[in-house]
Amino acid sequence: MLRQPMLLLAKSQAVKRLVTTVPVTRAVVARYVPGENTEEAVETAAALIAEGMNVSLDFLGEDTLQEAQADATVAEYLRLLHALAGRGLTASAEVSVKLTAIGLRLPNGDKIALENARTICQAARDVGTDVTIDMEDHTVTDATLDVLHELRREFPETGGVLQAYLHRTEQDCHDLAGTGSRIRLCKGAYDEPADVAWRDRHEIDLSYVRCLKVLLAGDGYPMIASHDPRMIAIAQRIADDHGRGPGGHEFQMLYGIRPEEQRRLAAAGESVRVYLPYGQEWWGYLTRRLAERPANLSFFVRSLMSR
Ligand code: FDA
């Protein structure tokens, strides 16, 4: 019930200004966002890698409407990749990039985002790692997949994300399940209209399983991004049916969500990657996480009110 209002808040600049100027306890945000700068992000990545995880780092930001901000985001990714290489972490650390953070919503945005993504992909390749292009709301699905398609001509190792809640996604899975493709399958985090997406949890789960079947039967590298124990168990069964060993797919979860399950899967020999967001632009990301779990919301509100 609270999901929709929370996701509306994610887009509200007024509420964002209000809340982000309150000195929210670092602990509330830190549950999901472990650092505000490159050094803190790299430290957290190193600690997770030492525990046997892989990571995907995301410099927070989205819906950029200024070219200078898009450029600054690209510069931060280059700094991050350099820092990861300096610590010898690039075998286990990749980066995730939102195209609207690097210019997709600017005039001529598809060209700007493609050029910026190319710069990041080249820097990632230079230090021996990969990039995954995050998926945002349905207004940019086609543009994001077009950019991914272009990027993969030059950087075939680039990963993409598909969201099971969209009606189109099962077909997109068929299109992207081929050799060499790396696809992260998630349920989807945005408030989407009923004409493009399922809104009922059960329908979304059914779609997630259909998409899992397509990706795990394909020749690509599926990245199963869910905290849902049922989806994880089903994915393991389907992967087994297709004779996929742990090297043939991986499980992904967000930093701070079900960490004990992340460790359990890794200890059981599964390949596990933790999505690790960092930076000061945590508002949109945090509200999506709160929308997924109302219990977290009351914790957040209590912490604001106790200030
Ligand atoms: P579901 O929401 O059904 O949750 C299952 C269980 O997980 C819950 O019962 C609870 O135990 C736990 N849980 C879930 N969310 C929690 C929370 N916020 N706090 C505490 N516990 C929680 N989305 C998108 O649209 N584009 C993208 O690019 C990505 N990228 C991405 C990367 C990775 C690695 C992950 C794991 C997820 C994404 N997502 C995403 C988010 C995704 O679409 C989805 O919103 C969340 O993963 C929640 O869905 P679940 O599959 O976890 O199931």
From TrEMBL:
| Residues passing through the membrane, by range | none
Its annotated pathway? Amino-acid degradation; L-proline degradation into L-glutamate; L-glutamate from L-proline: step 1/2
One of the GO biological process terms: L-proline catabolic process to L-glutamate
Quote the cofactor binding remark. Binds 1 FAD per subunit.
From what superkingdom does this record's organism come?
Answer: Bacteria
Q: What class of enzyme is it?
A: oxidoreductase
Q: Which UniProt keywords apply?
A: FAD, Flavoprotein, Nucleotide-binding, Oxidoreductase, Proline metabolism
Q: Which reaction does it catalyse?
A: L-proline + a quinone = (S)-1-pyrroline-5-carboxylate + a quinol + H(+)
Q: What is an example of a GO molecular function annotated in this UniProt entry? A: nucleotide binding
Q: Which residues form the Proline dehydrogenase domain?
A: 42-300
Instruction: Report the InterPro entries cross-referenced here.
Output: FAD-linked_oxidoreductase-like, PRODH_bac_arc, Proline_DH_dom, Proline_oxidase
The entry marks the following residues as binding FAD, namely M135, Q163, K187, G188, A189, S226, H227
Q: Which SUPFAM superfamilies match?
A: FAD-linked oxidoreductase
The positions annotated for binding substrate are K98, R288, R289
Q: What is its EC number?
A: 1.5.5.2
Cofactor(s) needed for function: FAD
Q: Which Pfam families match?
A: Pro_dh
List, alphabetically, the PANTHER family matched. PROLINE DEHYDROGENASE 1, MITOCHONDRIAL (PTHR13914:SF0), PROLINE OXIDASE (PTHR13914)
Q: What is this protein called?
A: proline dehydrogenase
